[in-house]
Amino acid sequence: MSVVTKATIASFGGKLLKLTHNAATTNCEMAFNLYLPPQAIQNPRQKVPVLIYLSGLTCTADNCSEKGFFQHGASKKGIAILYPDTSPRGLNIEGENDSWDFGTGAGFYLNATKDPYDKGYNMYSYVTEELPKTVFAAFEQLDSSRVSITGHSMGGHGALTLFLRNPGKYKSVSAFAPIANPINCPWGQKAFKGYLGDDIQKWKEFDATELVKKWKGPLNALIDV
């Protein structure tokens, strides 16, 4: 689907773009932010690496781009930053707006299998497949062979699980105060039960502490609690 630019903001010599597109995986319009460093602006033919930043509970695509200012460091290193949203929005599912830690703003970067959330709460497929495909098609300056992932809290959980489930897909992974063992904490248990049902084995498929047990070979990951 085509990408629509809602706003362009000058940021540390580069541009912070406010973007939307219609996503098939989530069945709704999704908003995201993309920071293009000055290197990508000055020479559009120069490919720049991409860092995906996954935000935490209650956040939108705007939180880190407007409050965290990763752009400052990224501008110096020539790194583009992709800021996805944390869930689908406006699906009109009963109960999705009732609490801050489940539903809207709390997609947990998984693919829901429990009705009715399986109709759009597919943030795992959205972040790993549809969004990158859309962004790389729209912005030729981005290097699809150099993609890394990071996140905070629920986003740290997302970064770790996406990395561990897709060996070789991301160049690096880092997580800040991640929900690293969601099957053993109230937030994770509430979300997994609501999205995945009662099957604990399904829960383990999106739990970094369980996934790392299956990892083969060395693992270089930065986790800051």
From TrEMBL:
<comment type="similarity">
    <text>Belongs to the esterase D family.</text>
</comment>
<keyword id="KW-0378">Hydrolase</keyword>
<dbReference type="InterPro" id="IPR029058">
    <property type="entry name" value="AB_hydrolase_fold"/>
</dbReference>
<dbReference type="GO" id="GO:0005829">
    <property type="term" value="C:cytosol"/>
</dbReference>
<keyword id="KW-0719">Serine esterase</keyword>
<dbReference type="InterPro" id="IPR000801">
    <property type="entry name" value="Esterase-like"/>
</dbReference>
<dbReference type="InterPro" id="IPR014186">
    <property type="entry name" value="S-formylglutathione_hydrol"/>
</dbReference>
<protein>
    <recommendedName>
        <fullName>S-formylglutathione hydrolase</fullName>
        <ecNumber>3.1.2.12</ecNumber>
    </recommendedName>
</protein>
<dbReference type="Pfam" id="PF00756">
    <property type="entry name" value="Esterase"/>
</dbReference>
<dbReference type="GO" id="GO:0018738">
    <property type="term" value="F:S-formylglutathione hydrolase activity"/>
</dbReference>
<dbReference type="GO" id="GO:0046294">
    <property type="term" value="P:formaldehyde catabolic process"/>
</dbReference>
<dbReference type="GO" id="GO:0052689">
    <property type="term" value="F:carboxylic ester hydrolase activity"/>
</dbReference>
